[in-house]
């Protein structure tokens, strides 16, 4: 595996990150993840726009043009010889003597790109059976709209899910509402067939997959409400699912061990997943 590190292409395990990189010491950075199918970056523009927004909120200046970044992304993918892949991009504020405040004299941000294989079969198989989620308190900060590399609450939530034999953790805020998953957005389908997902705000990451599903729903004339929902509502819903670049649309069949509807993947989630995949080819 080959990684891109500040303009160089290196083996993934090469010693390449500096001790005083602010990403390493402060989690002072942001990231993006693209799904690549047959060599095509899905929703490339959307991910790039979100990256710039995240960087802007943290006042980190991307040290390269869009064109140069695009070349780096594609060249890293090419060197890994993968058609179906996940591309990870991380930008940190750069290397500077450890001090919480920003470097007085600005330093060049660090940019890292890594690639990993994203075979279709395991994800498709998971979508056939559906996944279980657990619920856990949303203990994150108040700017979850920024795709920050500071992911400790998400790490702990995902680990709790794994230890419970579940695939994802749904994060619950002080009001008892589901904000989102540890690395995905959360959805339900009501008994009336209405798609429901939490509105984009400071308390969730506005998923690029989420935005694409909203566009698909609009194009297909599906009813959709962007509003909060609780675990109780999800448990009595017709369907539940998660969305992310990695999982696309993934049916949720149980929450904390209790079945959603009849405990089988829902038909609307399946249809959305198909529409989403069909869009990948176009
Ligand atoms: N929420 C969180 C907390 C995430 O980490 C992710 C995945 N990056 C998402 C939502 C889904 O975003 P996307 O659809 O852009 O992958």
Automatic annotation (TrEMBL):
GO molecular function, one term: D-alanine-2-oxoglutarate aminotransferase activity
Pathway given in the UniProt record: Amino-acid biosynthesis; L-isoleucine biosynthesis; L-isoleucine from 2-oxobutanoate: step 4/4; Amino-acid biosynthesis; L-leucine biosynthesis; L-leucine from 3-methyl-2-oxobutanoate: step 4/4; Amino-acid biosynthesis; L-valine biosynthesis; L-valine from pyruvate: step 4/4
Primary enzyme class: transferase
Segments traversing the membrane: none
Coiled-coil intervals, chain numbering: none
EC numbers, comma separated: 2.6.1.42
Pfam families: Aminotran_4
Catalytic reactions on record: L-isoleucine + 2-oxoglutarate = (S)-3-methyl-2-oxopentanoate + L-glutamate; L-valine + 2-oxoglutarate = 3-methyl-2-oxobutanoate + L-glutamate; L-leucine + 2-oxoglutarate = 4-methyl-2-oxopentanoate + L-glutamate
InterPro entries in the cross-refs: Aminotrans_IV (IPR001544), Aminotransferase-like (IPR036038), BCAT-like_C (IPR043132), BCAT-like_N (IPR043131), Class-IV_PLP-Dep_Aminotrnsfr (IPR050571)
Nucleotide-binding keyword on record: no
Family, as annotated: Belongs to the class-IV pyridoxal-phosphate-dependent aminotransferase family.
Physiological role: Acts on leucine, isoleucine and valine.
Protein name as it appears in the record: Probable branched-chain-amino-acid aminotransferase
Organism: Glycocaulis abyssi
Lineage of source species: Bacteria, Pseudomonadati, Pseudomonadota, Alphaproteobacteria, Maricaulales
């Amino acid at each position: 595996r080959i990684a891109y590190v500040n303009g160089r292409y290196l083996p993934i395990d090469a010693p390449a990150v500096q001790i005083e990189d602010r990403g390493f010491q402060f989690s002072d950075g942001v990231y993006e993840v693209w799904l690549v199918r047959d060599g095509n970056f899905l929703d490339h523009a959307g991910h790039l726009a979100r990256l710039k927004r995240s960087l802007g909120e943290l006042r980190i200046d991307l040290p390269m043009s869009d064109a140069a970044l695009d070349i780096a992304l594609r060249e890293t993918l090419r060197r890994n010889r993968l058609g179906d892949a996940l591309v990870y991009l991380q930008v940190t504020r750069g290397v500077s003597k450890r001090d919480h405040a920003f470097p007085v004299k600005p330093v060049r941000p660090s940019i890292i790109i890594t690639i990993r294989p994203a075979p279709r079969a395991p994800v498709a198989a998971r979508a056939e059976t559906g996944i279980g989620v657990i619920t856990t308190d949303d203990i994150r900060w108040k700017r979850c709209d920024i795709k920050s590399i500071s992911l400790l609450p998400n790490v702990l939530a995902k680990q709790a899910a794994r230890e419970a034999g579940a695939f994802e953790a749904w994060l619950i805020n002080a009001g008892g509402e589901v904000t989102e998953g540890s690395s995905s957005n959360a959805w339900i389908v009501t008994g009336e067939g209405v798609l429901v997902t939490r509105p984009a705000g400071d308390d969730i990451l506005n998923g690029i997959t989420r935005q694409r599903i909203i566009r698909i729903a609009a194009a297909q004339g599906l009813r959709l409400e962007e509003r909060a929902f609780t675990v109780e509502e999800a448990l009595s819903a017709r369907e539940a699912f998660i969305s992310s670049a990695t999982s696309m649309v993934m049916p949720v069949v149980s929450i904390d061990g209790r079945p959603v509807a009849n405990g089988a993947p829902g038909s609307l989630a399946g249809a959305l997943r198909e529409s989403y995949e069909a869009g990948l080819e176009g």
